[in-house]
C-alpha cells in the first residue's frame, strides 16, 4: 500500500517535471521535417473536415502554404475552441492556425502573428424580439460559445438581468437558437450566412459587437518562428494568394482591416 | 518546468464553489428521484403486467445502450420541437434521472430477485400485511444486498453530471471551463476542479456509509 502510493506519487512528479513547454524554433521544425499545426475542424469555412475526413478550409489552406514555405510536411492536429491554447502551451502543437482572434488577454499567454483572416461578430436573434442595443438584453437569454471572442464581448456589454448561456461549441449555440432555447446568440457573420440558408427571415442582426482579426499563434518566446511566419504572411498578402483563399472559402475579397499591415 | 500559478484560480474560488454546490444539488436530487424511478420500474419489471414489463425493458435498454451525451442533447435540443422547453439545469436534472433510472432499475431488480420465495411466504405466514411484506421482507433485504452496487452507481451519476455543461448548465465542470477560458490556467483550474470532485465523491461515500450503518445493519434498531 505504502509502496504503491509512493510509486504513484513519483510517477505523478515525473510526469509534471517532464511536461514539455519548449517553443520550437524554425530550425528545429525544419530538421524535424514536419510541423504540428493546431486547427479547428468545427468552424466552417475556416476549419472543416472534407468528404474524406481530412481537415480542410481557409485555415488548412493557409497552413499548407506555410508548411510549403517552411519546406516541411504538414501535420494538422484537430483542436477545439476551449482547448486550443492549452494544446499550444503544452507543446502538443508547434503553432495554431485555429481562427484564434487576437485579444489582449490571449496575447498575455501566446504570441500572435500579423492577422491572416478576420471576421465581424454581432448579436443575432429572433426577428420579433427588440434587442437593438445592449441594454435591451436584460430579461433575455443569449447563447455564446464558451471562451470565444463573442463570449467576452457579450459578457462585457450585457446588463444585469441578461442570462448568458455558454455552450462548448458553435454548433450547440446555433442549435440552441434554432430550437428556441435562447432568443439570440453572439455569432460571426460567416455563421449568420449559414443560418440564413437554413432559416431565412427568422432571425436578424441586432447590433455589432466587434471586428475580429485572427492571427497565427505561437508559444511565448518563439521570436524566430514568429518572424518567419510574419514574413510568410506579408508575402502571401502581396502576391494575392491569401486573397485567393479568401475568395475560395468566403466568396469575397480579403477585407481591408486584415490585409493592412500595421 | 511548468510555472504553477494558482492565484487566479483561488481568486475565483467562489465561482467554483457555486458550481460545486450546483453539482451537489443536481446529483442529490437526481439520486433521490432516480432511486424512486428505479424502485418503481424494478417492481413493474418483476411483478407488473406483461405490457408494463415490455415498456420498462424498452426504457432500460434504450437508455443503457445509448450515450449520455446524446440523451442530454435529445432532451435539451430535441424536446423544444414538440413544445417542451426546459431551462438548462432542469434538462440536466431530467437527463440524469432518466439515465440513472435505467441502471438503478437493473440493480434493484437483481436485489428483488435475490429474495427467496420462501422468505416472502414466511412473512405472510407470520401475519404481515402485503405492504409490510414488501417493506421489511422484500425491499429492505434487497436494497441491503445491492447497496454497494447502488452507491457506486450514485457516485458514477455525480461524476457523469460533469457532462451537463454541454447544454450550458452551470455545474462545477462548467464553472471550471469558464474559469479556464478566462485565465488559460488549464492545469491549475482542472487540478483544483479534480480535487473538488474527489472531495465530493468522498463526501457522498461517507454519507452512504453512514446510511448503511443506520438503516441496513442487523439486528434492526427499530
Word description of this protein:
The complex is a heterodimer of chains A (262) and B (222). With 262 residues, chain A is of the alpha/beta class. Chain A folds into 2 domains: 23-118 and 213-259, 3-Layer(aba) Sandwich (D-Maltodextrin-Binding Protein, domain 2); 120-211, 3-Layer(aba) Sandwich (D-Maltodextrin-Binding Protein, domain 2), CATH 3.40.190.10. Chain A has 11 helices and 10 strands. Chain A has helices spanning 2-18, 26-32, 58-70, 84-89, 104-109, 149-157, 170-178, 189-198, 223-238, 241-250, 256-259, and strands spanning 34-40, 48-49, 55-56, 73-79, 95-101, 111-126, 141-145, 163-167, 184-188, 203-218. In chain A, a hairpin with a 5-residue loop joins β2 (48-49) and β3 (55-56). The N and C termini of chain A lie far apart (62 Å). By secondary structure, chain B is an all-alpha fold. Chain B has a single domain (7-214), classed as MetI-like fold, CATH 1.10.3720.10. Chain B contains 9 helices and no strands. In chain B, α2 crosses α5 and α7 runs antiparallel to α9. Classes of the chains: A alpha/beta (262), B mainly alpha (222). Chain A binds chain B through residues 16-17, 19, 21, 82-83, 85-86, 89, 105-106, 109, 143, 146-147, 151, 165-168, 172, 175-176, 179-181, and chain B through 1-2, 76-78, 80-81, 85, 88, 165-168, 174, 177-178, 180-182, 184, 186-187.
As residue ranges, the low-confidence spans of chain A are: 13-20
- Content of β-strand of chain B: under 5%
Structural class of chain A: alpha/beta
Architecture per CATH nomenclature, i.e. the level-2 architecture of chain B: Orthogonal Bundle
* Distance between the ends of chain B: 60 Å
- Largest interface (CB < 8 Å): A-B, 26 and 22 residues
The number of E-state strands of chain A comes to 10
CATH topology of the largest domain in chain A: D-Maltodextrin-Binding Protein, domain 2
Helix content, binned percent of chain A: 40-55%
Highest-level CATH class of the largest domain in chain A: Alpha Beta
Low-confidence stretches of chain B: none
Give the ordered list of helices and strands of chain B: HHHHHHHHH
* Number of H- or I-type helical stretches of chain A: 11
Order of the strands making up the biggest sheet of chain A: 4-1-5-10-6-9-7-8
CATH third-level topology of chain B: MetI-like fold
Element pattern of chain A in H and E: HHEEEHEHEHEEHEHEHEHHH
GO molecular function (chain A): ligand-gated monoatomic ion channel activity
Protein name (chain A): Transporter substrate-binding domain-containing protein
Domain Ionotropic glutamate receptor C-terminal (chain A): 34-252
InterPro entries (chain A): Iontro_rcpt_C, Solute-binding_3/MltF_N, TAT_signal
Amino acid at each position: 500500500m505504502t509502496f504503491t502510493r509512493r510509486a504513484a506519487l513519483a510517477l505523478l512528479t515525473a510526469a509534471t517535471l517532464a511536461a514539455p513547454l519548449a517553443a520550437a524554433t524554425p530550425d528545429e521544425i525544419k530538421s524535424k521535417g514536419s510541423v504540428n499545426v493546431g486547427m479547428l475542424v468545427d468552424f466552417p469555412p475556416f476549419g472543416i473536415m472534407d468528404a474524406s475526413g481530412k481537415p480542410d478550409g481557409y485555415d488548412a489552406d493557409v497552413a499548407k502554404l506555410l508548411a510549403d514555405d517552411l519546406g516541411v510536411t504538414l501535420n494538422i492536429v484537430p483542436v477545439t475552441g476551449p482547448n486550443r491554447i492549452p494544446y499550444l502551451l503544452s507543446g502538443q502543437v508547434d503553432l495554431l492556425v485555429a481562427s484564434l482572434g487576437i485579444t489582449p488577454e490571449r496575447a498575455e499567454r501566446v504570441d500572435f502573428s500579423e492577422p491572416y483572416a478576420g471576421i465581424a461578430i454581432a448579436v443575432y436573434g429572433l426577428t420579433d424580439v427588440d434587442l437593438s442595443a445592449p441594454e435591451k438584453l436584460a430579461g433575455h437569454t443569449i447563447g455564446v460559445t464558451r471562451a470565444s471572442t463573442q463570449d467576452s464581448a457579450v459578457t462585457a456589454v450585457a446588463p444585469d438581468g441578461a442570462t448568458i448561456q455558454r455552450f462548448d461549441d458553435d454548433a450547440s449555440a446555433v442549435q440552441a437558437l434554432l430550437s428556441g432555447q435562447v432568443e439570440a446568440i453572439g455569432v460571426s457573420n460567416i455563421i449568420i450566412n449559414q443560418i440564413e440558408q437554413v432559416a431565412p427571415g427568422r432571425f436578424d442582426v441586432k447590433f455589432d459587437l466587434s471586428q475580429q482579426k485572427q492571427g497565427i499563434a505561437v508559444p511565448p518566446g518563439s521570436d524566430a518562428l514568429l518572424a518567419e511566419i510574419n514574413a510568410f504572411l506579408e508575402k502571401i498578402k502581396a502576391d494575392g494568394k491569401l486573397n485567393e483563399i479568401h475568395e475560395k472559402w468566403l466568396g469575397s475579397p480579403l477585407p481591408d482591416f486584415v490585409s493592412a499591415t500595421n | 518546468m511548468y510555472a504553477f500559478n494558482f492565484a487566479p484560480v483561488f481568486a475565483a474560488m467562489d465561482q467554483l464553489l457555486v458550481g460545486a454546490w450546483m453539482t451537489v444539488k443536481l446529483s442529490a436530487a437526481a439520486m433521490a428521484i432516480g432511486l424512486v424511478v428505479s424502485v418503481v420500474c424494478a417492481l413493474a419489471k418483476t411483478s407488473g403486467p406483461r405490457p408494463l414489463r415490455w415498456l420498462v425493458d424498452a426504457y432500460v435498454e434504450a437508455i443503457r445502450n445509448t450515450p449520455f451525451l446524446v440523451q442530454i442533447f435529445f432532451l435539451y435540443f430535441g424536446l423544444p420541437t414538440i413544445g417542451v422547453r426546459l431551462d438548462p439545469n432542469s434538462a440536466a436534472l431530467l437527463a440524469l434521472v432518466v439515465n440513472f433510472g435505467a441502471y438503478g432499475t437493473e440493480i434493484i431488480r437483481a436485489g428483488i430477485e435475490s429474495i427467496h420465495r420462501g422468505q416472502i411466504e414466511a412473512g405472510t405466514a407470520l401475519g404481515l400485511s402485503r405492504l409490510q411484506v414488501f417493506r421489511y421482507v422484500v425491499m429492505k433485504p434487497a436494497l441491503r444486498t445491492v447497496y454497494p452496487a447502488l452507491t457506486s452507481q450514485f457516485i458514477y451519476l455525480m461524476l457523469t453530471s460533469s457532462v451537463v455543461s454541454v447544454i450550458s448548465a452551470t455545474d462545477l465542470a462548467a464553472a471550471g471551463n469558464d474559469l479556464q477560458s478566462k485565465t488559460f490556467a488549464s492545469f491549475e483550474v482542472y487540478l483544483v476542479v479534480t480535487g473538488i470532485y474527489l472531495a465530493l465523491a468522498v463526501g457522498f461515500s461517507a454519507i452512504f456509509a453512514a446510511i448503511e450503518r443506520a438503516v441496513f445493519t442487523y439486528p434492526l434498531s427499530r
